[in-house]
Fold this sequence. Notes:
The chain has 386 residues and is of the alpha/beta class. The chain contains 11 helices and 17 strands. Helix 5 (97-106) packs across helix 6 (116-128) and helix 8 (196-215) packs parallel to helix 9 (245-255).
Amino acid sequence: MDIQSMKERFEKLKTPFYYYDTDLLAETLSAIKSETDKHEGWQLHYAVKACANPKVLRQIQQAGFGADCVSGGEIRTCIENGFPADEIVFAGVGKADWEIELALEAGIQYFNVESIPELEVIAEIATRKNKTANVSFRINPDVEAHTHAHITTGLAENKFGIAKEDMLHVIRVAQSLPSVRFVGLHFHIGSQILQMDDFEALCYRINDLQDELEAAGITEVHNINVGGGLGIDYKHPNENPIPDFKSYFETYAKCLKLRPGQRLHFELGRAVVGQCGSLITRCLYVKQAQTKQFVIVDAGMTELMRPALYGARHYIENLSCSSGQQTYDVVGPVCESSDVFAKDCPLPETKRGDLLAIRSGGAYGETMASQYNCRELPKAFTTEDI
Ligand code: LLP
C-alpha cells in the first residue's frame, strides 16, 4: 500500500512514530529468496543492527533468514523473536566476556572473530564451559567501497578485522586450540554500496586469499561470509522500493570461486528493511526567517540520526497537502544546529498540523534513536497494527 493512502490511519496516532510497511517487506524478502534459492548452500543472515523491531524480526525469521548479531543484546532479542540459535552469527571488534558466554550457552552458529586476543578469550571461555566454539575470521580485505567515509569498513586503516597478511597465522593459531573449530572466513567492505564493481573487487580478493589457503594446505573453509552492504535508492523510494538484488547476487555468482561444498553467507541489513520504514512526523510550525523558510517538525535527530551524523538525505513527502511548491529547510526540535533533516527541500506549501513522511527510514532509524533532551524513544507500528 502506498504511503499516501495510509494518511487517514496515521492521523489518529501520536507523532512522531516509525511505520513499517509489512507488505513491502514481504515483497522484498521474496525478491531476495527468489535470487538466493537458485544457488545451493547460500544462506542469508539478516543484519539485525539495521532494524531490531520485534515484528520486523519475526517476519524476517519466518521468511527463512538467520541473523547477524553484534552484541549480546541482539542475540537475546533474536532468540526471543524466534531465531534458532544455530542460525545466529556473532561479529564485532569488542565482544565482552558475558556476550561470549551468552553466545556459547545459546549455541550460536559461529563467531566472526576480529583479533587474536579475542580468539584467546573465546577459547578460554569455551574450555571453561566444556564447549567448542565455531570461529570464522573477519579478514580486512583492503578493498575500497564507494560510500560515505563513516560507513566504509574494509580498508586497512579501519578498526575492523584482521589484516589479510595475518590470515594464515590466525588460522594456524585457531587450529592449535582444542576448544575452537575453524569454520570459515568473513568479510564486509561497507554499507550503502551501489556500484557492483566494489563487490566484484571483494570477490577477486577472496579468490586470491582462497588460492593462498589452498597452497598452504588449509581446506577447512566451510563458509565464506561476504557481509552486507547493498545500498538503496534514498532519492526515489517510490520508484525503486526494492533494491537491485539481481545484480548484487549475480555479481557473487559470477565472480566468486567457491570450493566444492563451500557455503556462501550474506549479511544484508539496509537492503532488506530500508525502504519498508518511514518516520511519520507532524509540522509544528512554519517559520519565516530572513533568508529561509523552516518547517519545524516534531521528530528530530533523536528519532532519525542519519542526516545529522552522516549528512544523509532522506526523501520527504507531505501527506496532507500536494499543491503550491515551496522550498524549506526541514528541521527538528532538538537543541543542536545539526538537527536538520533536509536543507532546501522542495515541498508543497506546508502548514502547522500537516503530516510528513521521512522515507527510507527502515534501516538504522529506530535502532539508532536516542533519548537526548529527555525525549521519548519513538513508537513503531506495522501495517497490521493500524
Ligand atoms: N555485516 C557487518 C559486519 C556489518 O558491519 C554491517 C553493517 C552489515 C553486515 C550490514 O550492512 P548493510 O547491509 O546494512 O549495509 N548506521 C550506518 C550504517 C552502519 C553499517 C554498519 N555495519 C547508516 O545509517 O548508514
